Amino acid sequence: MIFVSIRADIRPEKREDWLAGVVRYSNEVRSEPGNLTFSCYESVERANEFAILASYADDDAGAAHVASEHAQWFFGWLPSVVVEVPKIVYQELPGDGWSPMGEVKMD
Question: Which of 43-47, 83-87, 99-103 has the weakest average pLDDT?
């Protein structure tokens, strides 16, 4: 599984553009074969700081995503709404998705 985390600081005056664009992009990414998860979250501590969490079945699915028309649009569009180049963590992990948190026990 490929796991990707992206942190982006959005220009306050571009917030509405960002929200509309990331919703559009999210829907397109989630429909890709090989996409396991795609979610976008806003920080509760820093306004206009967003995190994207995505996972893909394997390297081929990740490469297909990067080559897709909607990903190329997103990469080209991002500079119009961000304060600086977003930060990314890209890792190949064992397994095929989220696992239960072992430290938490449910009754």
Answer: 99-103
